[in-house]
Fold this sequence. Notes:
The complex is a heterotrimer of chains A (161), B (787) and C (262).
Chain A: E1 2-8, E2 11-17, H1 23-30, E3 49-52, E4 55-58, E5 71-73, H2 87-94, H3 104-117, H4 123-129, H5 141-150
Parallel strand pairs in A: 1-5
Antiparallel strand pairs in A: 1-2, 3-4, 3-5
Helix pairs in contact in A: 2-5
Chain B: H1 16-20, E1 36-42, E2 48-54, H2 56-59, E3 64-69, E4 105-106, E5 112-118, H3 121-130, E6 132-137, H4 144-147, E7 163-169, H5 174-183, E8 186-194, E9 197-198, E10 206-212, E11 217-222, H6 227-239, E12 246-249, H7 265-277, E13 281-284, H8 287-291, E14 296-297, E15 300-308, E16 314-326, E17 353-362, H9 376-394, H10 398-405, E18 412-413, E19 419-420, H11 425-436, H12 441-450, E20 454-463, H13 471-476, E21 485-491, E22 497-501, H14 510-522, E23 529-532, H15 550-577, E24 584-587, E25 590-593, E26 599-601, H16 602-610, E27 625-630, E28 639-648, E29 655-665, H17 672-692, E30 722-725, H18 745-764, H19 778-785
Parallel strand pairs in B: 1-13, 11-12, 16-17, 22-23, 29-30
Antiparallel strand pairs in B: 1-5, 2-4, 2-6, 3-5, 7-17, 8-15, 9-14, 10-11, 10-13, 15-16, 18-19, 20-28, 21-22, 21-27, 24-25, 25-26, 28-29
Helix pairs in contact in B: 9-18, 14-15, 15-16, 17-18
Chain C: E1 5-7, H1 12-18, E2 24-27, H2 33-38, E3 46-49, E4 59-61, E5 67-70, H3 75-79, H4 86-92, H5 98-103, H6 106-112, H7 119-126, E6 129-132, E7 136-138, H8 139-142, E8 157-162, E9 167-174, E10 181-190, E11 193-199, E12 207-208, H9 210-218, H10 243-261
Parallel strand pairs in C: 1-3, 2-3
Antiparallel strand pairs in C: 4-5, 5-8, 6-7, 6-8, 9-10, 10-11, 11-12
Amino acid sequence: MSHVSMTVNGKQMSGDAEGRTLLSQFLRETLGLTGTHVGCDTSQCGACVVHVDGVAVKSCTMLAMEADGADISTIEGQAAEDGTLNALQQAFQDHHGLQCGFCTPGMIMSAADLLKNNPTPTEAEVRHHLEGNICRCTGYHNIVKAIMAASGQDVSSIAAE
Amino acid sequence: MPKDHGIGASPKRREDVRFLSGTGNYTDDINVNGQAYVHFLRSDVAHGRIKTINTDAASAMPGVLKIFTGADFEGVGGIPCGWQVTDRHGEPMQEPAHPVLAQGKVRYVGDQIAAVVAETVEQARDAAEAIEVDLEELPAVVDMKAALADGATKVHDDLTSNLCYDWGFVEENKPAVDAAFEAAAHVTTLELRNNRLVANPMEPRVAIGDFNRGTGDSTLYTTSQNPHVIRLLMGAFVLGIPEHKLRVVAPDVGGGFGTKIFHYAEEAFCTFAAKALNRAVKWTSTRSEAFISDAHGRDHVTKIELALDADNNFTAIRTDTHANMGAYLSTFAPSVPTWLHGTLMAGNYKTPLIYVNVKAVFTNTVPVDAYRGAGRPEATYQLERVIDKAARELGVDPIALRRQNFITEFPYATPVAVEYDTGDYHGTMDALEKIADFSGFEARRKDSEARGKLRGLGVNCYIEACGIAPSNLVGQLGARAGLYESATVRVNATGGLVVMTGSHSHGQGHETSFPQVIAEMIGIDESMVEIEHGDTDKAPMGMGTYGSRSLAVGGSAMVRATEKIIAKTKKIAAHLLEAAEADIELKDGTFSVAGTDKSVAWGDVTLAAYVPHNYPLEDIEPGLEETAFYDPANFTYPSGAYACEVEVDPETGKVTIEAFSAADDFGNVVNPMIVDGQVHGGIGQGIGQALLENAAYDENGQLLSASYMDYAMPRASDVPYYNVDHSSQTPCTHNPLGVKGCGEAGAIGSPPAVVNAVVDALQSGGHKVDHVDMPVSPSRVWAAMNA
Amino acid sequence: MYNFDFEKPSTIADAVAALGDDEAQALGGGQTLIPTLKQRLASPSKLVSLKGIGEMQGICIADDGAVCIGGASCHADVAGSSDVFAGLAGLAGGIGDPAVRARGTIGGSLANNDPAACYPAAALGCGATIITNNRAIVADDYFEGMFATALEEGEIVTEVRFPVPEASNYQKFEQPASRFALVGVFVAKYADGVRVAVTGASEEGVFRWAEAEAALSANFSAEAIADLKLDSDGMIADLHGTSEYRAHLVGVLTRRAVAAAA
């Protein structure tokens, strides 16, 4: 066991980890931040995406020890202190961009990563960016629409609501 | 102007806030003090005889509490099957024993040989590797037709063969159907496979068993669509725990799609082991484990024939299907290829004679059971594909051929035992034609051709039977359960309501849509209504969520219970207003006396029920809580017309979905936003089935697509925006809300549209291809083009 | 996963020393290795992360004009360097997904040599030089078949040097599940000839398509190879495509790469 420290959602946090402890496991089991989900074991579904030093990564495919000293953002840190959803979260609610909610934390974190680097993406860019985030409920329609809306683009002409 | 509240409005989902902020409560988020962890040692061969299992070394490893094998479960019940099908000859299906842990033989890759309970998951896994299993490998039975050949290796030694049942429907009609084929002017024949799928809800299954030695109570936390059903099946048939000593909790559940209906061995194991060890026992499936332990779906091989007269009227349908059951009978497996499939073979058409033959077959593969649509996608796919092929053979417009044969008068009794109450199939086709812009297709095709691509348009219809189901009917058909739903409406003193429902929401948004109904009935704000579900200690006995039944059946129970509440509050209001009960009206949350200005507010009446100082105690009890059980009079019959446009790259065979339109008739719609979302999701899964997904086994019974590295899940870039419409509405005639159910439609209606479009595209390029099996992969399309 | 010790040295020398221990293994971005460990298909005693080694990070131009990429540079960094080497940046931008590209490294990819990985096609297609902690290996000598390379035990890919072609392009036809290459073709045109490297297709791993190179060296146009067919013997056949299909795709993608590069 080694002691691992990191800044998570602006707060200093630490705990013990083995060499094999995954960042996702450390967040969920050691720090009790169960908003980050694990949906596969081959690094494909993206339910576990968090930001490490400002970059979206799959926390199930990174060792906790590799994140020692890093600045981590998770789904729990996205809303304001008073619980007000941020613009991206709010767009997901407004446009029904989630159903069962299991993939949602990873979707939000991946979408936030996209919008940080590409503030007004095209539909094709949004879809391409979500290559590593699998949703089984929504058929992606409302996820893509929500991200487009969160980027400030007009989505009123997109079919169906 | 869209409504802003009540039935027909689209309020934002209240469950979203917790899901968007990482504060949901999924089963794996639950940890019970002192919990231990189980790892299942699963068979890596498809078929084998267990000679010995030596756990001595493994048991001595660090952290190991106990290693269980089949021997520990002698005297414990097996996993029950909830449906008994009677075959063509009036005999019951062959029903093998299904032990919690393998006894004597392993029958599929993934079958549980042993279970190691240890202090940590990794310790359990370490010890599992040290278990010595002496296994005599047996030939694997994989192909269904080979499984039925004389002398085939038997999956279950004590059964007479690998045939579970040979079902004929309607058996008495067979001679007439055969005669109609003899007399037909044209017969179209199509052989196809409905590919095996893995449901893949994004949340893998989890089970936590807990036991309180002080009270003798067992608790199971599980990722289930129907906790009461699990309590009944596991309590009564497996472990012998009466319902009052067993609580089953299914909290936030991350998608189900059918595969979380069934009672699984892991649930029984965790509950059993918790009592045996006096420790909570937790199991969290990995995705790799899910591929070889979650029940799979579909996997039918079918030959369908359609007979037409000289005027292109459908005169008869005859089908011959082999349906894979896998190695054991999962909870509802026998019903899927029979009553959920054969009864839908009429589709939207007035075909007078239909005969369906289904041979259900045991193989050395993961058990197969209901997956979104369950039987109805299989029926729709073969029917809508053969109609499309017939139109091409006859040189007629596929839409016109469909329209010509539509059922137009309701109620309509099909030749396959069901009666459609309402529908308007021309109406949904008209709606489709409006949204899909058929008139612009030729221009789009030319544009594709200019870019070297082949463009195709595929159209199909579907009908489904959902709102499952009338108990007396399904009882006759072999169901070993009723299929009613329950609701308890508890009104608190200050007027707020808690509705406890047996329906379960795992993505459907019940916490938002159910209050819309109740609030509208009473005339109060939706925020005054809270939905509780997923805990057998809270809700009355219910049957859960599947078969697009939650609103049609569960919602109806809720309406009935609310009607009882309203009746009682009117009595109280009459007393408070010193008026006759018959004169009391409830509107906008206020009781008034007709023709007067006397009124009393909802909250004052509910308060009076709990503070009965001025109260007709001699006539009615204090308190305000009512329960209703609703058993539907019939299935509901949503229907629709779907259109898909594809581009095929003739060099690579790759198919791209360019447009997808869906016009559905769901009857009345409570929350259009949620309904659209359900259709989107269903279409996404249907496109997945049509183009990408394939649970394939090799001849040794190894699953070739056993992870996301080989099982292709649809991604955002595989699908377009969908164009959906549900303006064509013929309300269900027999439930109080006039609703039909929308959860499965997209998955039922979309695969034939995609494949019809691919065939259309290929034929437009001069390729003589009249069918490509799903998934329509680039490799298959290329092979078909170059055959 | 089996447990292991973890070290994160900050110099190549320390990393090499740490890898001297029995059963120690280098960890690049971990995007393949960690899933492999989860399946318990490997049991290193120690993982030595190369992510903390500054001298293995970054992209620069050598005196001879070659693009030099530090072995621990992630795919996203290479994808962002289209001004330096557009063909390679395009390839890197199509590997996996954004989160994978943020962690996965070029050194890790080349050391693993997955038969369906993208980077081997670029390295072989450019005749790159793979620099390790103790030698330089030309790409033609480096790839030794599926998951096999010229690397010795404990040897680290510290840098990869790509001679920049006059024109180049990578065409990838994705395997629909893994999104690795069902077939990927890298075409690079140099003053002294054209190189064509194919990944995903062969049971022997990445390979050069000599006939196409000869034809394209004479005439760098898609028409020059319009009738060229690759024999399907030795091509991979699996759930996602037959060997004939893969052989066919090699031709299609090579033509498309030439058209896109020209």
